[in-house]
Amino acid sequence: EIVLTQSPGTLSLSPGERATLSCRASQSVSSNYLAWYQQKPGQAPRFLIYGASTRATGIPDRFSGSGSGTDFTLTISRLEPEDFAVYYCQQYGRSPPKITFGGGTKVEIK
Amino acid sequence: QLVESGGGVVQPGRSLRLSCAASGFTFSNYGIHWVRQAPGKGLEWVAVISYDGGNEYYVDSVKGRFTISRDNSKNTLFLQMNSLITEDTAIYYCAKDSRGTGSGATDYWGQGTLVTVSS
Fold this sequence. Notes:
B: mainly beta; seven-stranded mixed β-sheet
């Protein structure tokens, strides 16, 4: 089973700053089947990125994903007030199709 | 759109059945997952069922206690939860997979239904 470790646990930044979130897998993620989600308090997760770097429909271009193998990054180029939330990475694409989530990174206002 | 229902407060050892009503897409073409989130914790995948109900998979902690099923004629997903324990307390989300087999990313999520297991 692949374990996903996200760091840091909490990121304290100001609006307009750049956020860099890390997701490290315990073994190589095949075909870069790595997704990112945003979750705000009291809301369901929102689909941001799939295939490690492809933005989902309607996601602003300030969100970008990169990486391959075991190391992946979500970058928010300039934080907007609505971007302060918890972000999760997810590994998919396995057989059998069991999903794994990272523990999450909270991006909070400094 | 995905709308969950059926949550509530239940005693340990009892059962509960969750439902997830789908609309706005061809339900019978896609795998669907249940994902849960304990209070103040992260996301935990629970189960997945393929587009035709032919394949289902579970996280080890619920195997033998939970059963995922679907009724494509009614665009509805179910989660039968038996022998509930306090550790099952969580918000339960249904989430649409981008593939029929259930091996894709989860691209649409419901708002969740809260299950509380307590005596």
